[in-house]
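Quarterly update, task 2.4: zinc ion-bound model.
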Amino acid sequence: MRYAIISDIHGNLEGLQAVLRECSLAQVQAVLCSGDIVGYGANPKECLEIIRQFKIISVAGNHDWAVSGRLDFSHFTDDGRRAVEWTRGHIAMEDIAYLNALELSIKNKDCILVHASLYEPQQFRYMTNLSKASISFPLMDVPVCFIGHTHVPGVFVEADGKIYNMDNSTIEIQLKYKYIVNVGSVGQPRDGNPMASFCIYDTQLQTIELRRVPYNIHEAQRKIIEAGLPRTLASRLAVGR
Ligand code: ZN
């Protein structure tokens, strides 16, 4: 099976379309999403339609549940709160119901998918270092876990009792080890690289490949400004921060 795993689309239609084009060129058979389909960007409705049309299986992100009313978002940043409220006014009841029904984690025989961490996933904590990763590894009974949330791609590995980071863009999976792969963000990368981020997981070859794709950032920015969303949500796309 050749999977693509995407995350943190955040209503960025141009980013999502560019990534899905790349997936089809890469002969991906199934696309999975680690959450945050909406929030920040100007096309939440269009992104939700694509997710459903292509039967992309997604878990819940904090923004998805904030928009649906399932998560208190009073602690979000000002931009985040304004985006949640704007998004609520620009999607349909059926979209709200879809977001509200998303689950915190989904597992198949090859991998498990969660937005932030397997440990207390409902808290949506950022997995930013080895000690934060270490409490999720014991909860894995498949070799690979895909996450998003930080918008920074990267890989944590647990091998022979040790936990460490890998910064290769292609990883050869050893089935006796465990891997937590942050696939980065399609719609609002924050690692200083403005290109959309996602990964391809090939279970035949047992490889995971982190990829970057250029997309029409100007168009995504233009729509954010035109929508009256905070201007910083547009400007940050150009710098990937
Ligand atoms: Zn996010």
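Highlight for this quarter: The chain has a mean pLDDT of 97.
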